[in-house]
Amino acid sequence: MAELRIPEETLGNYGHILGEVALTGRRLTRDELEARRALGRAAADAGHQLRALVTMHLAQTREAWPRGAAGNSPATTDAVLAAVEQAVDAFAEGFERAQRLTVRREEAARREFIDDLLYGRSDLVRLAERATRFGLRLSRAHAVAVASGPEAYTETDAVPRSVEAALLTRFSGRKILLTTKDGRIVCIAPGSQPDVLRYFAKQAHAATDGGQVAVGRPHKGPGGVVHSYDEALEALDLADRMGMDEPVLYASDLMVYPVLTRDRQAMSDLVRSELGPLQKARGGAEPLLNTLAVYFDAGCVAAETARRLALSVRALTYRLERIHQLTGSDPSDPMHRYSLQTAVIGARLLDWPAKEL
Q: Which family does it belong to (predicted)?
């Protein structure tokens, strides 16, 4: 029934051309072929389906097919079939060109929207209106997950496409937007559906051969997406600086770190005061700073710390004593431990001692 709703003028003078071909045996002219391409482009722009249009061509071919003994000669049949092939091919070529142009325009509009959305550009009211075209209702809370891997990805690469296919199979009908930005895979989902981002994290971690995924907190409004996106990026950056190797990071679990660096000057003073003396050690501060970091990560258990550092417990004890001698703070003393551990975290956040404070 779909092809019956297509106006007959969509095919132009197709039937008349076939009638002339049956009488003369001629081929379609250049102008006629170009006219067929133009009709194909117009049909695509009108939203018709190519399958229905081809069916319509075949129906008109049957109607216009030459009748009578002379008209059914092999030469006439060959000429008409050649004309049908020329006409349908030119029409389909125009149709496909228009579709490719439409796809490119849609891709450009989608990329522009994503850039505006993740960078917080454009008028927020207008941004919210544009979002409905891509299945997002920005008046509600949304959360963003960002996956990084060993290489930079684009939307056409196999890795993001496999992740997207898995999401669409699992969550068909959900309002999900998956894209790439600055070489990372980005997933935007309603904040009320944390299962989507958990599943995205699982799929992205596997598809990127162990890449890391960070999930921002849900936030409302057009500016909420960029806020959540920034949180996810900051979590990835924090993981890199702090040496965190967890496959999935949640910004909500890492809020203490921004708090610690909110007063950068105070944190710099603490690092210099607590850890500055380590620079006097042979080999500089970095080996002893790393020892402290592993010691605290291991729950201040000497045997586990030694195992992680590939040291003997005796060698580790010597290092801890050396730290005590240089800084005046004993890592094994609960009274000193908090300041030392906070200073170690600050050193990682501020990239000390690689950077001067």
A: Belongs to the CdaR family.
